[in-house]
Amino acid sequence: MDLYIPDLLKNLLPKELLSECHTRPFNRGDHLFHQGKKPDYMYFIVSGEVILTRANKHGEPITLQRCKGGFVSEASLLTDVYHCDAIATHSGLAITLPIQSLRKALMDSNFSLKWVQLLSKEIMRLRTQSERLGMKDIKSKLIHLIETDGKAGTLNLQSDLKSMASEIGVTHEALYRAISTLEKKGLLVRHPDSLELLRK
Question: Distance between CA atoms of 74 and 36, rounded to whole angstroms?
Answer without folding.
Answer: 15
